[in-house]
Amino acid sequence: MKYELYDFDGTIYDGDSGVDFSLYAIKKYPKIIRRLPGMFIKVLAYLFKLCSKEEMKTKVFSYFQDIDDMDKFVEDFWKTHEHKLKDFWTSKKSHKNDIIISASCTFWLKPVADKYKVHDLFGTDIDIKTGEIKGDNCHGKNKVKMFYDKYPKAKIETMYTDSINDLPLIEEAKEGFLVKGKKIYNYYEYKPNFIVRFWRWGWGIYHKNEEIWNYLIVGGLTTVVNLVTKWVLWAIVLDPKNALQLQISIIISWITAVLFAYITNRIYVFKSKSKQILKEMSSFFGARLLTLGMEMLIMWFFVTFLRMNTKMWSMIWTIVTQVLIVIFNYIFSKLFVFKKKD
Q1: 8 A C-beta contact, residue 117 and residue 96
Q2: I need a surface site. Which of 18, 76, 267, 321 has the fewest CB within 10 A?
Q3: 257 with 211: CB under 8 angstroms?
Q4: Who wins on pLDDT, 249 or 205?
Q5: Which residues pair with 101 in a beta bridge?
């Protein structure tokens, strides 16, 4: 039997369904926010090779424990996100020989597979109650193994993907295709020069989560504004060894950074067209007040209480808090400030 294989995120789905699924979960169940610091630490551990990808994913998806009815939640998710399925897939007349093979969770891909009546679905099997990965992560070479374990005599006619990580499957297929946004390229003919390849590779990563990348750029600039303001205050006016002056410098730099952040997030990240600017701005500042409290608490504990109060240590803890604040600020802005109607 001959099959046509498709990756999901960035290929069939315009973006990363895992990111969208998690953000949608936080919107519906705000209590998940309390798990974010632990998730962040686990992701860092994975990046520094201190834990496996499976362990990292298990921690990230531990928020499944906070979702009351997963079946209903998945149904609601696709009601608001089905429009992100790409036209080349939804317009195809028949999917009877198609197989979706993705690193994303099987259970949230199943409604798409069922609706379009694909032949089969391979994904990462995750416990919907705990977030624990069961079996192998459906990624890279594991995809080849999982496919041939079930279909040992099958032929892969075509493989569609947006990622070089699927090269093992592309090499098994008669034809391989790279899906970049709305364009599809023959993999074996897609050989532009190095500069073009590098540009398209970067653009592909950017396009998959354009809003997040825009936010990171703006967030980075906001952090620079915050740090530069503090540095100027500490160098000229205030002394971080003095507890009161430390907190004053935090408040002044916070006001400066938040003004910059509101303007850039409204225009370049969330592209808000709301005419209720005062209401939107007050929500934005209110959300930032929560992260300001977080920063003040962390800085007090490490710099004042633990007396790690040299200028070097003060700057180190400032950078650490800024990383956490960037993450929380994105979630608050996305879900509660610049929210869009579903």
Answers
A1: yes
A2: 267
A3: no
A4: 249
A5: 122
